[in-house]
Specification:
By secondary structure, the protein is of the alpha+beta class. 36% of the residues lie in helices and 26% in strands. It has 2 domains: 180 residues, Ribosomal Protein S5, domain 2, CATH 3.30.230.10; 126 residues, 2-Layer Sandwich (Alpha-Beta Plaits). Strands 1, 2, 3, 4, 5, 6, 7 and 12 form an 8-stranded mixed beta sheet that branches. The radius of gyration is 19 Å and the shape is globular.
Length: 313
Amino acid sequence: MGMIIAKCPLRISLVGGSTDQEEFIQKYGKGSVISFPSNLFTYISIHENNRNKYIINYSKKEEVDSVDEIKNDVARVCLKRFNVKPITVTFNTDILSSGSGLASSTSYMIAMIKAISIHLNHTWTDFEICKLALELEREFNPLTGAQDPYGCGIGGFKRINFSKANNPSFTFLDSGFLSQHFNMALYHTGEIRSSTKILESIDFDKSLPLLYKVDWLEEALNAKDIDKFLKLFNESWETKKKTSKLILESEHLKDFDKAFGLNEKILGVKLCGAGGGGYFFALCDKRFPAPVINGISPIYVLVSESGVSGVRV
């Protein structure tokens, strides 16, 4: 077997979050997001060991005799689905991933499936891997958004459309618009969120305007209208905050949000994911370095044109 290493980007959503929830899609017939996979990754490595045990290394270390004993959800459901014999699995990432709002759990799931596919000599497409990742993650997190796997595992800046009956479809956008006009940065809030609680509280009627803003943001991108793009991006964040009082429930997060608004080098900002913690994503004035906000230094990000990948070494 040797060692197999797979990696998958973490995704950043610009607009449309919540419209990818199954409840929203069933109610309104469709959903849509504009997002991109970043140049920040999760990594999975797998290899055989001589102990005849499942050894799972992440922020904790597990060493167990059967798959059912594994507490790490991603490792357990993947190894069980593919009936993989005892191996060692190691999780790594470029960021503080727990509660990040960057779909880290989904990114790990995709990388895990990719590694196993290489191990089993399966030739699955990236789309097939993403579709399976959503199915498996929903076994332990039913509220996983449909945007997460396709946002992470399919490369490029894109619009993703969801419907009741059909597979997601993609419209690929000009990532040069972002890189030409903005320094893009993430700011870690220092808070770890539980997205489940927040997603359960979302008012989907209040989320409906986000669906229209996806259309308008795409139009602004295609027209290369920076002012309109920024206006819609910031309006979308204001709309998002109204969908659940839990998104900015913390005074710490409110202080962050206010500090971004007062800094002239920050042109647009939003809290990643469902909210409640993790990372703020900021579009910063290209003429200057991204500023330090409330003592937190920026992590610069770019669009990844590739999605999931893996190799046997």
